[in-house]
């Protein structure tokens, strides 16, 4: 059984400022492009049975810059639909809803985006996991997607409820790896970045 590798896309303007970025198709910042390029050495020499990417531009560009140009778009890897909270920070939401928590409360519908509950995101994550089962039997699988979606997917891979994705903080432009130990899914690496260049 192969490993499941997860790459969160590089930085965007909204990820840098903490604004919830679901369906808004933002490009990577220059720093985000550098983050994406930095993943290439971590993936060098690896062969994948399957490579899937969110269809959103920030994930597709990350895949390309990381050397995964043949990544297949997978609609279920798109980010959590934040509904009326698209483009809004948690701090701003809590000025009117002090106890609001994405992982337990979900989001209200918006004019452009209908919004999703944690359970609805979990259903999509489960579909992705079902799709990649056969490929994992052949080798490693690579997914390039978004922070909250990959956190939910990790929870589901570990047999946890979608809301337990809250436990797995995931940074932009990082690589993580889910493996097996004695037949059970485990986190083998998390938030990996290349080592910083040595200082003279």
Structural class designation: alpha/beta
Q: Helicity level, as a percent range?
A: 25-40%
> What is the typical, i.e. mean, pLDDT?
96
Main pleated-sheet profile: 6 strands, mixed
The general outline is globular
Give the C-alpha Rg.
16 Å
Organism: Streptomyces erythrogriseus
Region (Disordered): 10-30
Protein name: Histidine phosphatase family protein
Pfam families: His_Phos_1
Structural overview:
By secondary structure, the protein is an alpha/beta fold. Helix content is 34%, strand content 18%. It has helices spanning 13-17, 30-38, 40-43, 57-65, 90-93, 102-105, 118-138, 147-157, and strands at residues 4-8, 48-53, 72-73, 140-145, 175-181, 184-192. Helix 2 (30-38) packs across helix 4 (57-65) and helix 7 (118-138) crosses helix 8. The model has no long low-confidence stretch (mean pLDDT 96). Pfam families: His_Phos_1. This is Histidine phosphatase family protein. InterPro entries: His_Pase_superF_clade-1, His_PPase_superfam, PGM_Phosphatase. Residues 10-30 are annotated as: Disordered.
